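Q: Give me the 3D complex with cobalt (II) ion.
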Amino acid sequence: MNDMQTFYNQLLENNKKWVAKKIDENPDFFSKLATGQKPPVLWIGCADSRVPANEIIGAMPGEVFVHRNVANMVIHTDMNMLSCLDYAVSILGVQHVIVCGHYNCGGVMAAMTDKQFGLVDNWIDHIKDVYRFNKIELDGISDLEARARRFVELNVIEQVRDLQKTAVVKAAWRNAKTPSLHGWVYDVANGLIKELITVENTNV
Ligand code: CO
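A: Here is the predicted complex, encoded as structure tokens.
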């Protein structure tokens, strides 16, 4: 068996071990989850393999509703994101929506170049808009790595602002204080999260 097959088979073995461990810790673990979900958090994160939502915040199954895409974008025509957002906010009643970006994000770095990558260019154009909105600040950072890090942060903040503009959040905020909207950045080099912005409903 080659390494890839070994790795693939290991995933299924890992699953069996994980189930056994969970049941050993709590015999009702799965039967309780099977009755339904009431997660307090919606996570909008990057698809990057180094940023696994639940793992980096120590959350259990049932605690985080997750939407991930390239560069953690909130795009107003993205039916996938909007469906997740609407279900999480309007039906599940999450208290917090977290947009979590990360340094060394391939999508954000791609948006700093004129290179063509194929289909994903259509998606990356939305990130390029964020550069344009913040061009004076970003062009003023001469160190390219520092500029990329700040671009990641500004992209997260812009996505939180885009969340605030959605009909889903506006409708929720007409009747209730929640959800709170948060922008975070995760550092893949040390595992730490930094809070960038929190937007609360001030109308209720
Ligand atoms: Co990324």
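A quick observation: The mean pLDDT is 96.
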